[in-house]
Amino acid sequence: MSVAAEAVKTEHLSLPEELILMLLNEENGYFHQVPGWQLNCAVIGAVLAELSLQSRIDTDLESLFVVDESETGDPALDPILKTIAKESRTRNATYWIERLALRAESIIDLTLDRLVEEKILEHHEGEFWTLASTAWKPDPYSRPREVTVGHFIKTRIGNLILTDMIPDPREVILICLVNTCDVFRFMFKLDEEAEERIEFICRMDLIGRSISEAVLHNASAPLLRRAHLTKQIPAVGLRDLLRSPHVRDGNLPALFAELAGKHGPVFKLPMPFAEPMIFLAGPEVNHWTNRHGRMYLRAREYFADFEKVYGASGVLPALDGADHFRLRKAMAPAYSRRRLQGQADELYRHARESMAGWKVGDSFQARRMCRHMINGQISPLSVSVDSQDIFDDLMAYKERALTVHIMKLLPGFAMKTPAMKRTARAIDTLLARVQSVHTPAQRAGCPRDLADDLFSLNASDPQLVPESNLRFALSAALIASVYLGDAFSLVLYAMATQPEYYARIRREADAMFANGDPDGDAFTPAAVDVTHRFVTECLRMYPIVPASMRNVMNSCVVEGYELPVGARVTIAQTAPHYMEDVFPDPFKFDIDRYLPPRREHRGPGYAPSGLGTHRCLGFRWMELQLMVNVMLVAHHFTLEVAPENYKHRFSPFPSMKPSKKLKFRVAETVREVPV
Ligand code: HEM
């Protein structure tokens, strides 16, 4: 396609769009760190200024009034215009910015979506945005330029503040707004002269001045303003909690959904050895966490004690902001589905090694069998060593550390028992084992693995990935086997208890393996339609990680409730999995929910892989590995659940898994496993 044909057609960006592009920080994939309330005020300021430039409102220092109520056609502007037009008294810009600031988040969402649609921004998994390198046509008459729109705007504004060029009114307002957010110093090298010029430009235009003064006025006293707008967070009593059937069956997402139904999306729960904890549950708070969580919530504190147990500090799940974005980008290939696809033959081989000895009548404890089967694959594929002999110790240590330091359900000395000291040795054994097979000579010609990526990052950027973090990072790779193994046992449980699905998955598996082992890229959506929808439904009904913890770093208002700075919150991201209005008839296992037009998983209510910036990086890898294993089992064996009277319940801490009582019995060998 020619550059002209590809060129972005947006001759005219609105002020909110230009502001968002100016504030975007390519280093962290989101905005420059502007406090949330200040950002909200600036965005509303941009909307008001745009309405004024489009002659819908007029404003000076004392008043803001509507001069033309007709719609602009821009969904970010029109609802605001309508609200102002409805007001009987004349108010000033300060009033409107304060009153409308809580609506800024939806305007930011709309604007980001529109900029992605226009190919001006690129959206990355984990809610990161970067400037897309599309050709850009600044006006209808100029030739498209091969620069990103964001760079174009930033260069234009840079020239205005660093030279004597005369800005137009739109540019003056943009400069005022960015200045209000106090981020010019992160974008340009400012000397005294440039700072004076910014001040001078900001005084040039009355609209810009009145709006930015109103923004500044509001931004300076956010807490006072917020307090009287918010509702009291309801506290759930212990009795209310214990009455729920889901406390007994261990179904945490269903419990959170039930509590949100009774008490609303933000509530407090009593904790055994600590202050009551704030919980967020519902599709709206999921959406908020996805889009805005990073401005207010941080992962560092909740993870600090846990990573310290491994001698680590600043590992991927504990990082925030630009460092997190950088490490996530660097590690993405190691966790990608493509990496696993490239090793499909090895994956089949290891899966078959585990199944080779299965005979009719054998029975296995589900959890243990599935975790070991998955670790038997993940360990050689990600760190190129076998770790089955130390896997039990790695698991026991990690489960205890999670229970003590994340769930806070056991006291600190529980980490120091002789048994724990013994299991801790497995971590050093693993590190030594992995290092011993990763010398350059040994790795020559081998497909790249996760350990290669970690060692090379440690060499090239020892601050981002210090050697002291390797014990954690390498054992975390195997700990993923616990999550994936538990998901596998629940998928097998769902298959073994629903013979009609078993038969459909087997048909897909037989077709897949009919002509020998398929390539990794053969698992296309059409080829695994039933299996994929089956796994998707299992992850809805049996999500392994039902909730995530964060600490509030900037106080904020969610669904009308204020989250105070410093509070620890639990985001029950999977609660909507059991909400009737998100997944109708939520206790029914139904894989047709994912077919058009229902597509019930397409909103923020489906979140087995978490939300926002820390969304599971291995999710696509996990889906493929899960499907391959389920299909191989269905291709070779019929499993049934034992004991016959088994009643399904979860063991929910520290992550969800089937109860220890669940066993699988081999009922039939459909085809021998090739050796
Ligand atoms: C059924 C299996 C799995 C489930 C349910 C799951 C779920 C999750 C969830 C909910 C998070 C976000 C945690 C938070 O926000 O605090 C997460 C993060 C992560 N997961 Fe998974 N996961 C699974 C398997 C895997 C596998 C197999 C891998 C590796 C191949 C993996 C790699 C990661 C990584 C690297 C992160 C951290 C991402 C970040 O902090 O930016 N996961 N996972």
What is the number of helical segments per DSSP (H or I, 4+ residues)? 29
Tell me the CATH superfamily of the domain at 3-227.
Answer: yeast vps74-n-term truncation variant domain like
CATH architectural group of the domain at 3-227 = Orthogonal Bundle
Question: Which ranges are low-confidence, i.e. pLDDT below 50, for 5 or more consecutive residues?
Answer: 1-10
Q: Give the N-to-C terminal Cα separation.
A: 51 Å
Output mean pLDDT. 89
What is Rg? 28 Å
Q: Share of helix among residues?
A: 40-55%
The global form is globular
Q: Specify the CATH class of the domain at 3-227.
A: Mainly Alpha
Structural class: alpha+beta
Main sheet properties: 5 strands, mixed
Bound molecules: protoporphyrin IX containing FE
Q: Based on DSSP secondary structure assignment, what is the total number of beta strands?
A: 18
What CATH calls the topology of the domain at 3-227 is: yeast vps74-n-term truncation variant fold
Task: Describe the strand arrangement of the main beta sheet, using strand numbers.
Answer: 7-8-14-11-9
The proportion of residues in beta strands is 5-15%
Explain how this protein is built.
- The structure is a single chain.
- The chain has 675 residues and is of the alpha+beta class.
- It has a domain at 3-227: yeast vps74-n-term truncation variant domain like (yeast vps74-n-term truncation variant fold).
- It is built from 29 helices and 18 strands.
- The strands form seven sheets. A five-stranded mixed β-sheet has the order 7-8-14-11-9. Strands 10-18-15 form a three-stranded antiparallel β-sheet. Strands 1-2 form a two-stranded antiparallel ribbon.
- Helix 23 crosses helix 26 and helix 27 packs across helix 29 (619-636).
- The longest helix is centred in the C-terminal third of the chain and has 27 residues, at 470-496.
- The protein is globular.
- Protoporphyrin IX containing FE is lined by residues 316-317, 328, 335, 480, 483-484, 487, 544-545, 548, 608-610, 614, 616-618, 621-622.
